[in-house]
Amino acid sequence: MPAHPGLAPGYEQKTITEKEKRGALRLIASPDGREGSVTIHQDVRLWASVLEPGEKIASTLPRGRFAWLQVARGAVTLNGQTLAHGDGAAVSNETSLGIAATAPSEILLFDLA
């Protein structure tokens, strides 16, 4: 459901290269389209990352927000919890997220209201 009733459907397409996601969280969707992301009419930010074994990334989660981490391929640990290909994890009551790859991996991180 859109953030406001009556919004006309909108469509965007952008190429985000693997290089842009390599070893870092790359914003790919947001309410305001910042940092070259596509615009989504929801209070959500969607980040993507491609990691090699041993690579680590961190993110902060503002108080009152939630996260969902989806492992698209590979294996990672999230704050010490092991996740493999296809796994997802809901996160609440945390302000710091530490993600470490244990195999070549691609992840999606949703920052949700």
Characterization of this structure:
There is one protein chain. This protein has a single domain, classed as Sandwich (Jelly Rolls), CATH 2.60.120. By secondary structure, the chain is mainly beta. The two termini are 14 Å apart. The relative contact order is 0.23. The strands form two sheets. The chain has a six-stranded mixed sheet. The protein has one helix and ten strands, in the order αββββββββββ. The radius of gyration is 14 Å and the shape is globular. Strand 6 and strand 7 form a beta hairpin.
What topology emerges from the helices and strands here?
Layout: H1 18-21, E1 26-30, E2 38-39, E3 44-51, E4 56-60, E5 66-73, E6 75-78, E7 81-84, E8 88-91, E9 96-101, E10 105-112
Parallel strand pairs: 1-2
Antiparallel strand pairs: 1-3, 3-10, 4-9, 5-8, 5-10, 6-7, 6-9
CATH topology category name: Jelly Rolls
Percent in helix: under 10%
Overall form: globular
Strand content bin: over 45%
Mean pLDDT: 95
Largest sheet: 6 strands, mixed
Report, as a whole number of angstroms, the end-to-end distance. 14 Å
In DSSP terms, counting alpha (H) and pi (I) runs of 4 or more, how many helices?
Answer: 1
Give the number of DSSP strands: 10
Uncertain ranges:
none
Secondary-structure-derived class:
mainly beta
**For this structure, what is the CATH homologous superfamily?**
Jelly Rolls
Reading side by side through the largest sheet, how are the strands ordered?
A: 2-1-3-10-5-8
Order of helices and strands: HEEEEEEEEEE
The top-level CATH class is: Mainly Beta
CATH architectural group: Sandwich
How many domains in all? 1
